[in-house]
Write a structure and sequence with these properties.
Low-confidence stretches: 211-219, 431-435, 855-860
Organism: Paenibacillus ferrarius
Radius of gyration: 36 Å
Distance between the termini: 74 Å
Transmembrane segments: 12-35, 47-67, 79-100, 106-130, 142-161, 173-192, 235-253, 273-292, 304-324, 330-348, 369-388, 400-418
Strand content: under 5%
GO molecular function: oxidoreductase activity
Structural class: mainly alpha
Helix content: over 70%
Protein name: Cyclic nucleotide-binding domain-containing protein
InterPro entries: ARM-like, ARM-type_fold, cNMP-bd_dom, cNMP-bd_dom_sf, MFS_trans_sf, RmlC-like_jellyroll
CATH architecture of the largest domain: Up-down Bundle
Number of domains: 5
Number of strands: 6
Length: 1010
């Protein structure tokens, strides 16, 4: 079923909730319907439904108020207990009636309304719980299992009701429901405590500290807005009509079923037993349907699925009308009711959601809730009002069934028109929601190649809007139908390279002729390398024209763009063109040898084709000075499973940037089980960053049982080990080296965080990943209350108890451990020179050398790497960066000295560098409208200039000139700065703040001059 270890842990906790609640819901429904129909009268069923439709808005309003006043977990628990209480009270009343031999006829409408509230809200509560407790992808995997559990509960309930109804009576069937809900509540409460409460820590604090004043309500569009918009849209009107008529038809068949069943079984126990039998059959059919529903949905699509459901409704009501007065009538109406129920609530409901996917995100919920509110009340009212014709004695049951056939026929027509209106609405929405629409279209239209909706897409291939054409091409491409090839070949001359790419992706060359292939091959000379590369990929799939495809692709090994060559080599290997393998080898050597972007694609080629003979060459690229090449090489080594590189990759981790660390970690994961011995050898490594990388990779590779056996004990021991590094900042402070002490303190904090990060990575494999992520966030929160609550959850032994307690101890450690020096400071510096962390060793060596020669700093002309890091730490732009990140910037920064009156920036001229002032002053000036020069301000040490123009090379809007003697600066080139901003958004935020300050200076100058 595609379930994972983390899914299984959650399933064992949640399946009993769905199973016991499914039994309770079905027992409750079966019993109260039998009691109401038998003791109050089925002819009054339409009245009670009309009354229920009227009070549903009030019910929703009260529940919304309750949700706003209670924490989420408490709200869900309270609602569950309210439902148990309602069932328990009703059960007690019913058993009291039976024991005392009394009855009160007007109690049964109250029983109906309260019990139906439980049926309605329990279903919503169960599914909302599933979605709240499971991330989106996990929910997709587990939802079929939850549905199967609920369905199995329905089957069990049907069998129980069938037997208990005969033996003990309907009251006993009803009274059993709250007992089973209590069993479900035990697991429900545990699941909330383990998975939901940690996720809502901050929200719970907010609700607790909320002031007595009413909170500000979010601005919402009035319901009248959505009503007007729907009246203007034939598509939305069609959708609402479908959502209204489908439940109306269901309520009509339900009335037919209950009326016919009451006439057939006048004894209450027999009626309850029959209801139970139908429920068991109903949910058995549902369970069988679940095995094929996903494939059926993917094949038919939501539009055809809804159309098929309406056809089933029409056919079911038709058979009911024809046989109602015959011996087969009870079987026809019972079978139709059972099938209608399953199709409406388990199949049609998810399909409805696609109607609203094309609405703007900000208004989507408004449309959805308004439409569902109208449809729910409207469907109940229409079904109930039509059923009243029989209750009033105006028509017989058989004519009412034929009236149901007529309504079902209208439903089929509405579904047909809605299906055809969908494509038009899809195109109308294309510009605002283009990224998602191809998936939505595929889900709605389905995989039927002869679909009229799919063919209608051809009409949009000449649309003036590129987004519309691209969408049409994506939808056509998903059909993988070669019949569209002639239409697509006709688009070869498109001006937009984006459309040409979409055309190629939509093509299917299976069955293409040589002439077709020749025409498609014209894309191989396209000016856009992306188009040429896509064409190579497409031609390689024409396996029935292997020799011709080989001819066209072989030439592209000489292309001037590495991506095209990359695709060409892969295509020739896919075609198994052995005669070209030597040429492919030459192309790969050329890519790896050229370096830069060519080497990146060379690594991708070697990785995709698993060419192990190039492993040593790729390994050598890890020493390349270009970060992109190193990242690609690490990825390639992982794909090749070259485990001999693991020790070298681990040594790179401490000084690697974020992108490289992610690539190294992914490489370890890609190596799979082969990497385990080398990684396990580093689970006790002294360097926290190397330890972090090793245990994080092992957490991904080992299953839960192996993690507990091989990783927990070493992790606990490593976390609880004393960290002698904490003594260094205090020693430096005592020696009066505050700058170095601050840097060393930050580095110790980073080492501590590396240990904590590794522990959280392992913990995530023993508990829900979202819970672990939320607890980690809570443990780092600024609020003491949030932090304490998070630590309290961790103290309960989340996941693995030993690991949780060790992590808790690690999180509780604070700076008090290194606030004082227990050893002589010089001895600590000497010891630090042999520690595992390179930065701390450098800091210690630097401090010792400074002590030996006090005047060393004044005599040094140029800054060392550590000097640069210390300086950068004092610049506001980089104050929040880690020591490693500061080291990366120091590594690309060059020190320059500029004489007095030198221009660093000139107004109107492009600038490719950013300057950080070490010593000296720089005047910023600009010209007024009258041609005069005005001073904006003077910058001094630890300030920056040129940061905004360096990123895009645009002309400078100001002039910057050295004044008052020479200036020493650190220079950062724009290309390197852009990459750092991409990797570390904190730098970008700092640059934005600096730029804003500069704009304010300019505004003040203009105001003064005005």
């Amino acid at each position: 079923m595609g379930l994972r270890t983390e899914d299984m842990r959650k399933l064992w906790m949640m399946l009993p909730i769905f199973y016991f609640s499914g039994i309770a819901e079905s027992l409750n429904y079966t019993a109260f319907m039998a009691l109401f129909n038998q003791r109050f009268g089925v002819q009054y069923l339409p009245y009670i439904y009309i009354f229920e439709a009227a009070i549903m808005p009030l019910e929703g309003w009260l529940l919304a108020k309750l949700a706003n006043r209670l924490p989420k977990a408490k709200m869900m628990t309270t609602l569950y207990l309210i439902m148990i209480g309602l069932l328990a009270v009703n059960g007690a009343v019913l058993l009291g009636f039976k024991a005392g031999g009394i009855d009160f006829r007007y109690y049964y409408p109250i029983l109906f309304l309260s019990s139906n509230f439980v049926v309605r809200q329990l279903t919503l509560l169960l599914w909302s719980t599933a979605f709240d407790l499971c991330p989106t992808q996990q929910a997709k995997r587990m939802m079929p299992v939850f549905i199967a559990s609920t369905t199995t509960g329905g089957i069990t309930a049907g069998l129980l009701a069938h037997q208990i109804g005969k033996l003990l009576g309907t009251e006993a069937v009803y009274a059993l429901a709250p007992v089973l809900m209590v069993l479900g509540f035990v697991f429900f409460r545990k699941a909330l405590a383990r998975y939901l409460v940690p996720l809502t820590l901050k929200e719970d604090i907010r609700l607790k500290t909320q002031s007595a004043a009413e909170p500000k309500e979010e601005t919402q569009l009035p319901a009248g807005y959505y009503a007007k918009q729907m009246l203007r849209s034939p598509f939305l009107l069609c959708a609402v009509a479908l959502m209204t008529l489908m439940p109306a038809v269901y309520f009509m068949i339900e009335y037919q079923y209950f009326t016919a069943a009451e006439a057939k079984f006048p004894v209450e126990g027999d009626l309850t037993s029959f209801y139970g039998l139908i429920t068991a059959i109903q949910f058995t059919f549902c369970l069988l349907l679940q095995t094929v529903s996903t494939r059926l949905m993917n094949w038919l699509g939501a539009s055809n699925m809804l159309l098929a459901i309406t056809v089933v409704f029409f056919g079911g009501f038709g058979l009911t009308a024809m046989f109602l007065n015959q011996s087969l009538g009870i079987f026809m109406v019972s079978g139709s009711y059972a099938i209608f129920y399953i199709l409406l609530y388990y199949i049609a409901e998810p399909c409805y959601q696609l109607f609203f996917k094309m609405m703007p995100i900000s208004k989507r919920d408004g449309y959805r809730y308004f439409a569902q509110g109208v449809a729910a009340s409207g469907g109940i009212l229409i079904g109930s009002l039509l059923s009243l014709l029989h209750s009033f004695g105006l028509i017989q049951l058989s004519p009412l069934a034929w009236l149901g056939v007529a309504v079902a026929a209208i439903l089929v027509v509405v579904a047909w028109f809605g299906r055809n209106l969908y494509v038009r609405e899809l195109v109308k929405s294309v510009q605002s929601l283009h990224a998602d629409l191809s998936e939505i279209a595929g889900s709605f239209i389905g995989g039927i190649r002869s679909s009229k909706a799919l063919s209608a897409m051809l009409g949009y291939l000449k649309h003036p809007n590129d987004y519309v054409r691209e969408l049409a091409l994506e939808v056509i491409g998903k059909a993988k139908d070669s019949a569209f090839l002639p239409h697509l070949i006709g688009m070869i001359g498109e001006e937009s390279s984006r459309i040409r790419l979409a055309v190629l992706r939509a093509m299917n060359l299976q069955g293409a002729t040589i002439q077709d292939l020749v025409q498609v091959a014209s894309f191989l000379e396209d000016e856009d390398p992306e188009v040429r590369a896509e064409c190579v990929k497409l031609i390689s799939k024409a396996t029935h024209l292997r020799s011709q495809s080989h001819f066209f692709i072989r030439v592209k090994l000489l292309d001037n763009h590495p991506k095209v060559v990359h695709e060409g080599v892969k295509a020739l290997y896919a075609l198994e063109s052995e005669e070209s393998y030597q040429a492919c080898d030459e192309a790969i050597i050329k890519m790896l040898d050229n370096g830069g972007e060519w080497a990146v694609y060379g690594c991708h080629t070697v990785a995709d084709l698993k060419l192990h003979t190039y492993a040593a060459w790729v390994l050598s690229l890890l020493d390349d000075h270009r970060p992109a090449v190193k990242v690609a090489a690490a990825h390639c080594i992982g794909q090749l499973q070259h485990v001999e590189a693991i020790p070298f990759l681990l040594t790179m981790v401490p000084l690697a940037d974020q992108e490289m660390r992610k690539a190294i970690l992914q490489a370890f994961v890609d190596m799979g089980e082969k990497a385990l011995p080398a990684l396990l050898a580093h689970v006790n490594h002294a360097n926290p960053f190397i330890w972090n990388a090793a245990v994080t990779a092992l957490a991904e590779l080992l299953d839960e049982s192996m993690l507990r056996k091989q990783l927990v004990d070493p992790c606990v021991a490593r976390m609880l080990a004393s960290t002698q590094e904490r003594a260094l900042p205090a020693a430096l402070n005592e020696l009066g080296m505050k700058g170095l002490a601050e840097l060393a303190g930050q580095r110790c904090t980073e080492l501590h965080q590396a240990l904590v990060g590794g522990a959280w990575a392992v913990m995530a494999k023993f508990a829900d990943e979202r819970v672990v992520a939320t607890l980690r966030e809570a443990a780092e929160d600024e609020s003491d209350e949030v932090r304490d609550n998070g630590l309290e959850v961790l103290a309960e032994g989340l996941g693995d108890r030993r690991l949780a307690l060790a992590l808790l101890e690690l999180l509780k450690q604070d700076d008090a451990a290194h606030s004082s020096v227990k050893q002589e400071p010089h001895l600590i510096l000497q010891e630090a020179k042999s520690w595992s962390d390179d930065w701390l060793k450098d800091i210690a060596s630097y401090a010792l050398s400074s002590l030996e020669r006090v005047d060393m700093r004044e005599e040094r002309k140029f800054l060392t790497m550590l000097d640069k890091v210390i300086f950068l730490k004092q610049v506001s732009l980089f104050a929040d960066l880690s020591v490693d990140e500061l080291g990366l910037i120091a590594g690309i920064a060059t020190e320059e000295v500029h004489e007095d009156l030198t221009y660093l920036l000139r107004r109107g001229q492009s600038n490719a560098a950013m300057y950080l002032i070490i010593e000296g002053n720089v005047e910023l000036s600009n010209e007024t409208g009258e041609g005069e020069t005005g001073t904006i301000g003077v910058l001094g040490p630890k300030q920056a200039l040129g940061e905004t123009t360096a990123l895009d090379g645009s002309p400078s809007s100001i002039t910057a000139q050295v004044i008052f003697d020479e200036v020493r600066v650190l220079t950062l080139q724009g290309e390197s700065l852009s990459r750092l901003v991409r990797l570390y958004p904190e730098i970008g935020i700092g640059l934005l703040h600096a730029s804003s300050a500069r704009v304010r200076l300019l505004e003040n100058m203009l105001l003064k001059m005005a």
